[in-house]
Amino acid sequence: MSPIPTGALFSTANGTDLVLTRTFRAPAADVWASITEPERTARWFGPWEGDAAPGRTIKVQLLFEDQQPRYDLHIDACEPPRRLAVSSLDEHGAWHVELLLAESEGVTELRFVQHLDTEEGIGEIGPGWEYYLDLLVASRDGSAPVSFDDYYPSMKSYYAGLST
Predict the structure, then answer these.
(1) CA of 139: how far to CAs of 80, 93, 112, 135, in Å?
(2) Angle at 84 between CA 83 and CA 89, to 5 degrees
(3) Where's the Activator of Hsp90 ATPase homologue 1/2-like C-terminal domain (predicted)?
(4) Residue 124 counted as domain residue
């Protein structure tokens, strides 16, 4: 498999946004369930536990990462079925992510946005999100899960070459 990178960078007042999109022939409510319900997120990202609500923190396990680490994910905003904003802090820094859904005539576009303080590391970050979003697609359409080896390092130069 040779996936094609889809991400783009946009300059903002506070830094840079990395934006990737995926389109689903499904209502927004169904796509929303894929990104918020624990048993469905476990299929493409990882299971989570805790009392999910704006202002609270849940514990997520990254099933598709080496060693399957667990980390805290803060729910910044949850506006079903249109907007989920989350943040976390790890050894690589702060992560601020939004998932925005827009439905038209039974087709839902998922707009994934990572708000970046710096573009440093984008060559690694972009392929990672492409991988996860394609895992989401596979979890929904029943296709075989994708392999990270198809995304990295082959997409690294594309993302490293992006700039705002």
Answers:
(1) 20, 29, 17, 6
(2) 150
(3) 25-137
(4) yes
Q: How many distinct structural domains can be found in the chain? A: 1
67: left (phi over 0), alpha (psi -120 to 50) or beta: left
Q: What are the structure tokens assigned to 151, written together?
A: 């995304």
Question: Is residue 3 domain-resident?
Answer: no
Mean pLDDT within 48-64:
94
The pLDDT tens digits for 136-151 are 999 999 999 999 999 9
Q: Which amino acid is at 113?
A: V
2 within a domain of the structure (yes/no): no
- Cβ atoms of 154 and 5 within 8 Å: the answer is no
What strands lie across the sheet with 107-116, from one edge to the other? 8-12, 15-24, 107-116, 93-104, 83-90, 70-79, 57-61, 48-49
Structural domain that includes position 110: 8-161
DSSP summary character for residue 149:
G
Q: Are 162 and 128 in contact (CB under 8 A)?
A: no
pLDDT tens-place string over residues 72-97: 999 999 999 999 999 998 877 889 99
**Cα first-last separation, the chain:** 29
**Opening angle at CA 161, ends 130 and 120, nearest 5:** 75
